[in-house]
Amino acid sequence: MFVQPGIKRARNALEAALSGLYDLVISLLDLIFGTLQRLIGVRGMPYIFVLPNLLIFGIFILLPMLLNFVYAFTGGASFTPFDRPWVGTANFDRLMDCTNYLEPRTCGEDLFWRAVYNTLGYVVIQVALMVLFALVTALILNRSIKARGFFRSVFFYPVLLSPIVVALIWKWILQENGLLNGILTGLGYEKIPFLVNAQWAQFLVIMISVWAFMGFYMLILLAGLQSIPADLYEAASMDGANHWQSFSKITMPLLMPTMVVVLVLSLIRAFQVFDIVFAFTGGGPGTATLYLVQYIYNYGFSSPNKQFGLAAAASLLMGGVLVVLTVIQLVVRREEN
Amino acid sequence: MSIILEYLRRTKGHKRIDITDVFSYVYLALGVIVMFGPIVWLILSSFKTSGEIVKFPPRLLPYRQDTVVVEGYADPLPLYEITFEDGSVRTLAQVRRIGLESQLVDPANPGEIIKVNINQRQPVESVYFGLENYKEGIASFNFARYLWNSVLVTLVATLLTLLVNSMAAFALSKYKFRGSQAIFIIMISTLMVPLSVVLVPVFLVITNVGWNNNLLGIIIPAAATPTGVFLLRQYMLTIPDELIDAARIDGASEWRIYAQVILPLAKPAMAVLTIFSVMWRWNDFLWPLIVLSRSEYFTLQVGLASFQGELNVQWNLILAMTVLTLLPITLVFGFLQRYITTGIATTGMK
Questions:
Q1: Does the N-terminal or the C-terminal CB of chain A have fewer CB atoms within 10 Å?
Q2: CB contacts < 8 Å between A and B, how many?
């Protein structure tokens, strides 16, 4: 009773102080921007406003993207683009050099093709499972169930975790003497070498990433479900539609645009799988969980003989796929609006 | 089949409990275990002693052996339950262990030493949530340094992100100027190319600017996010231009219009961007991993990753540090949950 006004007063004082500080900063900056405006006029001001963003964007996003092309078409071990000899499409030829594309062993860059196939397998299974779980969860959370907010938070919470934390948590559970093997031996089964066996590692990487990102897509789908007007269902049930009919004739068609967004977003994300796996398996055992971004990372940063040209060429190929996917998403979004 | 079909339907506002409700609650209960169980297990494990943590099969709760202070012995002695040959059971404190023989005393009668085989003793344990792992981890892991780096990066980068992106969004939404369309289109088109595919050239640029092993190297480059510009611009487009005209007639400078008319009105969008920026920066891994190689500049995420890569992994310390790194983001989520969930649902970004 006595605390409440105290807190309120303190908060008011803090707010007043903050807004005072804000006004002060704004007024000081107005000295600079006001002078600028007198010099170049109102019409020049928008350029001043975009300038900081454009500088950072140009130097750290646009320039690297252009430089990537330089790397991809030049060879040698030098890191400085101008010291690198022009090699044309040699890097791409090297990546594409295969007697049989379906068999990575026959390729000049067998690691690249292993990474390609690992990534493709990962993308297909992970996206399918992700969309399935996200959809089922969203459908259930859209019902009139108790403690909906609580359940939604629980399913969403892993999205907030950093990739390192996700990897550590699961490594701890799945290690040889971890919780899961403890439960297995308790039930009378043999221990499973989860992190040493290639198939298990591939499967678990998929499940862990579904665990980590599912809540994000669930939330988007939930918003899509909630935007479907309730009177459609009432009208349908008055017309004698059963549950399956109202699901297949109302829910699914109206949810389709959201589903496509979720599908494309999760595809783009899945192609870039890296950080969780990097901390969880490091690409192993062997090359079982070596994916494309890690292939690029290895050649660009961690390998003893760095091959920037190959890394850049591989990233351009991958970037091409991503651009196509994003264009699909933008087109769908535009149609939606 | 019909059950599955029924289960998929939308049932808002029906009254009686039917089979689909049972399915829903079973699914949700399993979901809670799978989604939240690992976190609970992490937290419970983080309190375990280094001896307890390597035990197999693992126990759910953290235990610690009870100790007792016995007259004549400086250190507290560990307590054991001893089963004697005649079947009697006594709780005794162990003085020392020699080979297979354990020498114990009765805390009530410390003069007499009792010798038994070590197989006869069973440690007396009780549940104990100790902070030893946290203290030791903070001391040995350079935690304070990494925490400071992470907090600094998150705060400065978020402030900068808000300023730089809102200024650009203001210009792109409230002015018609030559090149505005081109700038917007170029920015939007880079939305689709992720950092992961331009790793090498980004590293080159940062090296040439001289920001290797410098926190500026992770603060500045990520400050101009096309996503942020896009989000704020779309929101500012909904603010009526009449407000700006009125302010101009009152003699306000363009800067004051931006800072004192538009920004206060764009608060909801700014809040969403703030939350995302905090999440991005705090959890960022790939970029700091490339830019920072000296450990005094590590952020928490890079520090954790390097710590777990060391040879004999001290899990008890790592787990305690992991819990500490997810505390801030959990608090943010607790307080701003509504903004986060609606923000994601409406913008579709993370």
A1: N
A2: 306
DSSP B295: G
State pLDDT tens for residues A139-193: 999 888 888 888 988 999 998 898 889 999 999 999 888 899 989 998 988 888 8
Q: Same domain, yes or no, for A138 and A194? A: yes
A262 vs A157: CA distance, rounded Å: 18
Backbone angles phi, psi at B323, to 5 degrees: -60, -40
| Domain extents in chain B | 2-45, 64-127, 134-347
Here the tokens at position B191 are 């939305």
Phi then psi dihedrals of residue B83, to 5 deg: -100, 115
CATH superfamily membership of B134-347:
MetI-like (1.10.3720.10)
A171 and A37 in a common domain: no
B10, B38, B45: residue with CB nearest A247: B10
Q: Which residue among A54, A168, A322 places its CB closest to the CB of B192?
A: A322
Domain boundaries B64-127, corresponding CATH code: 2.30.30
Do the chains contact at A246 and B319, CB–CB below 8 Å?
no
Q: Tell if the pTM clears 0.95, that is, is over it.
A: no
Among B227, B247, B105, smallest CA distance to B174 is for B247
Cis peptide bond upstream of B57, omega within 30: yes
Instruction: Inform me whether the C-beta atom of residue A69 falls under 8 Å from chain B C-beta atoms.
Output: no
Q: How many domains does chain A have?
A: 2
Q: What is the ipTM of this complex?
A: 0.82
